[in-house]
Amino acid sequence: MASMIRRQFLASLAAASLNPLRSAPRFKKDPFTLGICSGDPIADGIVLWTRLALDPLDGGGMGQDSHQVDWIVAEDEGLKKIVKRGTETATPQFAHTVHADVRGLKPGHWYWYQFRCGGVETKVGRTRTAPAAGSNDPLRFAFASCQHYETGYYTAYQHMAKEDLDLIVHLGDYIYEGGPGKDRPRLHNSAEIKSLNDYRNRYALYRSDEHLRKAHELFPWIVTWDDHEVDNNYANDIAEDNAPRDQFLERRSNAYQAYYENMPLRKTSLPRGSSLDLYRTLDFGKTARFHVLDTRQYRSDQPCGDGRKPQCAAALSPAQTMLGDRQEKWLMDKLKSSRQTWNVLANQVMFAKMDVKQGDGAEYSMDQWSGYEVPRQRLCKFFDEAKPNNPVVITGDIHSSWVSEIKSDFNRPESRNVGVEFVGTSITSSGDGVEVPAAEAAFKKDNPHLKFFLAKRGYVSCAVTAKSWESAYRVVPVVSTPNGAIETRAKFRVEAGTNRIERV
Ligand code: FE
Ligand code: CA
Questions:
Q1: How far is the CA of 416 from the centre of ligand 2 (A)?
Q2: pLDDT, tens digit, for every residue of 440-453?
Q3: Span 277-295, mean pLDDT?
């Protein structure tokens, strides 16, 4: 593997040196068809992103030349007070995407930015740096996941864009990999995606949505992936359809590269063959540390044949890993060193143990942490003994909302609370959703740590201070038709130091 990665690296270097650099192209058409975005705010910096793509749904249409793209950052929306400027080279190797890692900004400040190339300029984007280390500034952010393009409209983003937020966190399933379905509000642009070109075109389709682009223009994002950025329920090097390992890793490297290209990530997340370092921390003063997790790249295979099952011996095996040894150790180290009030785990699959068989008998999703019982228990024990401040797990994946207290031992309901988990629903995936009060009552009966369940679409809006955390479950009535209204269906508060959820 190492030699394969090295060969690819050398090949890409050689290709890069062959590309003529044309610093002054003139575009007759707008090449910034996919908009702009920003992400991974730190106290003195931000990543700014754009892509040159004259023909975004068909490979980009930019040919083999590299181009220089200029960017500016200003303190005002009118771009009068420019504080930073620079130039990045957009190369064909990375689909003419630009990732400018801007430094030297002021902490806790709004900024406006714009890109220029070939006589064309982008819209003006807005972004915000993280507060200074030690600051107790409050933080407002929304988290989202699962935005299957075919199953509905991004009404949730339309409303999110109107909120007063510092940040948006995306927990994965930014794209879906499947081919077009039938009788859907809108359709995918190709059969199941596998090649680099396929993945690129799929991101372009998703970014063609005006509400998604607007949410990117207005706020910085922190992103992580789940499975559908590559293949449904893949685990490390194991495909859903049991494709041969080499073949799947080639697909994974295509998917990871397109992910890097299209997200506002630092160059520390540059793909290396079929690997990409995505897990990282981001600090918001003394208020919050985000531990952004990757629960796909390093995990062992789903046990017990995947799906919803009673926990068989394999689910309880100490050989199971969700994060991989290196990431698990990293997480515990970052929790130990954290002085922040809230330790947010930006996670993909449900952490709390959840019996989802209503009534007698117990079944758990083997794709979630319940298929990885020993690593979950290790983390619960760590929360209990090392006592990191206020763990809050935020989770996506299952297209429904679940609010739980995390127990030091889920097998003993009377055991201490050691954290909380807010599972947010999908933006669109699984369609309009349903009202199921009977299911909520049954799940709560079987799972005393569960406080709320809902199977509608939307997102979660969080207000975080040195004293308390509030999560508002924002719900849209339908996604199969555009422009629905939004409501706050339920709101939960956690007072710092309690690990206890109150409905407010
Ligand atoms: Fe999903
Ligand atoms: Ca049950």
A1: 22
A2: 999 999 999 999 99
A3: 98
